[in-house]
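Good morning,

Both structures are done.
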Amino acid sequence: QHFKRREIIIMVIGAWGILAALLTFAPPLRGEKGVQEFFISAKNGDDSHPGSRDMPFLSISRCVEEGKTEAPIICTICEGIYRETVSIKQPQAQNILIRSDTQAKSAVELSGLRVLDVNWQQLEDSRLTDGHCVFSGEVPSEGYPDNFQQIFFNGSMMVEARWPNLDVEHVAQSALSRDTWAPTEMGSIYGTIKNADLRQHPFSWNGALATLQVAHQFYTWTRPVANHTKGSDSFEYTRDLPGLAGWDANPKKEKSKGWEHNQFFLSGKLEALDAPGEWYLETTPSNTKILHFWSPTCAKPPQGSVEVKVRDYVLDVGADSSGIDIRGPLTIRGGSVRMAGCDSCAVSNIDILYPTYNREIPEMFSQNRGGKPQFVNKTGLIGTHLRVSNVTFSYSNNNGIELVGDHNIIENCLVRYTDWLGTLTYVPLSVKGNNVTLTRCTVHDFGNAGITAQIPNTPPSAPGEPDPVPKPMNGRRLEVSYTHIYRGGLVGKDTAALYTGGWKSAGLHWHHNWVHDATEKCVRADDQSRNMTVHHNVIYNCGVSPLDDSQSNIAGFGLLLKGNGHYIFANTIMNANYSEICLPSCIEPYKPWAKQYPLRIQNTKQGTQVFNTVARFDLGFPCSCHNSSFLHLPGGNQTAIFNGTNLKLQDPTHMDFRPAQDSPLVDAGIEVPPYTNGFVGKAPDIGAYEYGGDRWIAGCSLHGC
């Protein structure tokens, strides 16, 4: 199916588009009459108090209970740490402002952690080769999860015992390094891992958890270890990995594609506890929980120094809510925020640290779990007219922020050190919906994709059913703009820093972004993408050293857009390992493992327009059409493409990508109204900036950006 091209005016998104979206938001409570304010204090509060400043409540939840009528209320949080889940649900789920006290002298923190006070004793256990710094304590039977997954010591995250080890002083950074994964070596096949270093471990890994980054390596799985004996160089796992996308085992052979040169790590054995900062939770035959902890100081942990993650959410807003405004400055630590269906709600000025963590990966389509959806905890914000602003989000081993719904805005946010397991099921920043704006954000250091974007559309038909009909193009808009994305794909393979695909891409506008230093693809629209607009982006260092991997020489793309109907103009794309620009022009390939739309020719000269862009032509064979029997030229109608190397930019080392006066890019472009309106000089320049024009900046303006 071909999409009807949208009206030209809809395709040009700029400052007016952002302004119009911002005007749809009216902060709740401002200017309302009859607003009642309550105060909460962790130091001198009591939930039997009336909630005044002199006699405050103890808990935020107690304040929320006051919202039983349609009259708006304000919950002002005084300094201190609050260890609770604030559940905002009917009939209190409307017109509530939760904010930190402007008179607070120290920080306001909402915590998902609970202090663990135990009687620590030095461990003496023959299972450990060196246990002189390991201390053990019985976990109370109430108040803690049966199988908790995350602990902190003096405010820093510790590491569950594993091999290879992580650097406990830089947990997130070392988790996002392939150096902390063990390689699968020659002889590894589907269901069997071989690694010579396994022989060095004086114990069996049976019963441990194997985290497997295998096969195509854009997914990661977790499976129990089986059939490992002490001194062996191999172990087995159940051959039931879903979604292998062509890597399924061939019943006539041991494998259909290579399983060597992948990676894995092992966890969940007391014997693996061999480094400062590691811990292991043991369940005794009497069902007692014993925490074994290698103290980083090699001394008995002081009382109150160890905390355990006991709740996923500190703020949980239920469905059919409206007018909920969560406003900092405040810190959320060891927990996160969830909105299950909120209209005209807002989250702003919050620093979220270690929000979500999962040891296992609950696949969405796992065969060995009965095919039932398995959802991972995430900072999921679902609703309409939502606004997320000035949020810093750091150190999640799985997801970052997911924004779902129409007429939403996320702006000036920083998302960093997420998706440590390198799987596409976890995304640092995901936006889904129509009339959505993602602008002036920074996303860096992530294991697979960085930002994913999509607008709901008609799904593919099942075999034998009529061809699907796409939703009308008129009115479809999702904007990713002025955003800085870098250091991506650090663990997984076949990755992209900015990603979309399928008919859900129709109506996406990606403009004025900096995307760079990714291990493979920087910007990608995957199979059967349609009708995107990509302009004024700077894209560089894609799949080049030091951020490269074994596939970078064939997968290091600057801009890869599959499908048809795209407008690509005024981009500066440089220094990609394989090819700066890739526009397949063959017929869309058949993939038996995927649900697909009718297969069409990609990037026709009538459908995809490319102009005023810096990029080398397609240098590969023939780009992503490897499974095609034809050799096609690069797709699209290409005009004014500069494929030289001496761009003469003003100061790219310091992010000034404007052309110098003597640059070959100056006045070298073509006029294509209205896309080139407002150019400086005799003709438009080629690339993302104009000589003499504005030096626009991408990314957030928060501390750490």
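Second structure follows.
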Amino acid sequence: DGDSSEGEGDGDSSDGEGDARSGDESERESDPGTDSSEDEHIDRNRVGGVPMAWYRDEEHIGYDEHGERIKRREGNPDAMDALVARSADPSAWRTLYDEKNDEHIVLSREEIGMIQRIRKGAMPHAEVDPYPEWEDTFHYEGGPLSSAPEPKRRFIPSKWEAQKVVKLVRALRHGWIKNEKKEAEKPRGPYLIWDEGGDEETTRAANGLAYIPAPKAKLPGHEESYNPPDEYLPTEEERAALQLVDDDDRPDYVPQRFGSLRHVPAYGQFIHERFERCLDLYLCHRKRKSRIHMDPKDLLPKLPKPRELRPFPCQSGMVYEGHAAPVSALGADSTGQWLASCDRAGVVRVFEVSTARCVHAWRLATVDAFSDVCTCLAWNPRLPVLAVGVGASVFLLATETGPAEARAEAAELLGAGDGGADEDAGGEKGGLCSWEEGLPEGCSGAADPSSGEGDGSGGGADRYAAIRVRCKHAVSSVAWHFRGDYFVHTAPAGASASVLVHQLSRRSSQNPFRKNKGRVSAACFHPSKPFLFVATQHHVRCYNLLKQSLAKKLMPGSSGVSCMAVHPGGDNLVVGTVDSRVSWFDMDLSTKPYKALRAHSGGVRSVAFHPRLPLLASCADDGAAHVLHGRVFDDLLQSALIVPLRVLRGHATNKGEGVLACAFHPRQPWLFTAGVDNAVSLWVE
């Protein structure tokens, strides 16, 4: 980097040293009364240490030395403008933006060289020698270094040394100190391998345990002699009885008598006995090992009891009815007062959480090929605006909930604009999406669903401010940015246009990726940083939007990622897969899962974190929702604590499908679940 920067600095020398500083160069005059390096660049903004964020919404940035306001001239451009500026201006690579003085500063060749030397670990100034040659200025000409007289202690014996000698003599007399010379160790000669009475060092193992000698073969007795006594010889009856005994119980050798030793034939069991002897030497233990008897329960981690981790949802509190088709998505707004849900028939309903009353309903029936499929929804974190993915369109609906100021801002935001076609990320007319105001023909909305306005006649559609973002492919997921102006949606069948980012205030859409590596299944923003998470079938990629680069690539280790959720802290991620696995990632620890939970027996449909409490929920096609305690500690040396709390079962299963979505209440320890049985359940503490 340092070499490339130096080369670019030489190439840009044609810009002139006069352009090394932009702004009011004439106003920066050094103070002749001081040698401080700060006088080389005098701040014209004299606000001191006041944070510049206080002037973010003002027309001025501070006050000069005369007390006059300094008007705001230019701001720090965003990432796209900075990219265009770098390609047009040859000196943009050495230009810095001074936020306090609201001006751009172009570094000179000397300053760039100083930065390069600092990065290499050298002195900033080239003319400074950090290791000068040593010049010895002291010359010794002989004689004592001190002219003081010799002290008296050098001529009188020390009484402290005398006392130490007395103690040593007393210890020698009493035998406390033995002055014995150690005999030199003799080299060890040959020894018997199977000697039982050997030295203790040879019969003891290195760890101090007793040594076990090899088993000895049984010595032959009188019955194995070639001329045994008569009492050892069997009779004819005994020989006949031995023939009737099983081979396992029959003795290996039957005594018999021979006239002389040369009449003894070869032993028939010789090879078999030698083989058995080799097995004894091979399999016998040579060392006595102590076994550790441990209870398998002691190997399990010590987890706190669930009653110590309250509050968490554990029982059914309320059921929200009204849908006639399986509920595919749901979510609660930022206030926690309203709950939105959508089903596969294209009906979106807004319930009041405390009373289960349906206050608004829309029938989003469009004319495209996916008109009867409503897949996802998400609340705007700042305004009462609901983003619903229906078929190949994303509807932005003003729910008319919340304070009057927020409703007015949402209506103004959704009702103003030209509604033209967008431009893609490269600036060309790509026709990614089209923005249309109002609900199309066939769609309807009603404030009171029981009044009959939502039957498809369109009579109540005009009272709701709405925008339709028409895309080319079926939408699978939608998520908002934490500031509320941007939202992202995914379309797995879109190939290179699988991930699109939309800006609501400008009504524009852009494609951040020219090519997606794999089939995209979900995408979401970081809760506090400019990062975008994109989940494919095999990986989860984290992109830095400011640097426009890949920051991290997570590997779940399973095929078929179906959903994901980011912890409110931003450093942990949970991924659900179709093979019944929930993987917890600690992105500061590793790119592989920190914990992999396999408690479900069906494919995982949705995972969710609680915004405030250390709670995690997952739901699957087995008809159950699992609630877990997931605490993330501030100490980087301590890993996250994951404790299973409760399994919630209240939805029926149908054709291999169970609970399709789950979401937490933003303020209370409550959990909302939606199932294939057309019902939405509330689980409370």
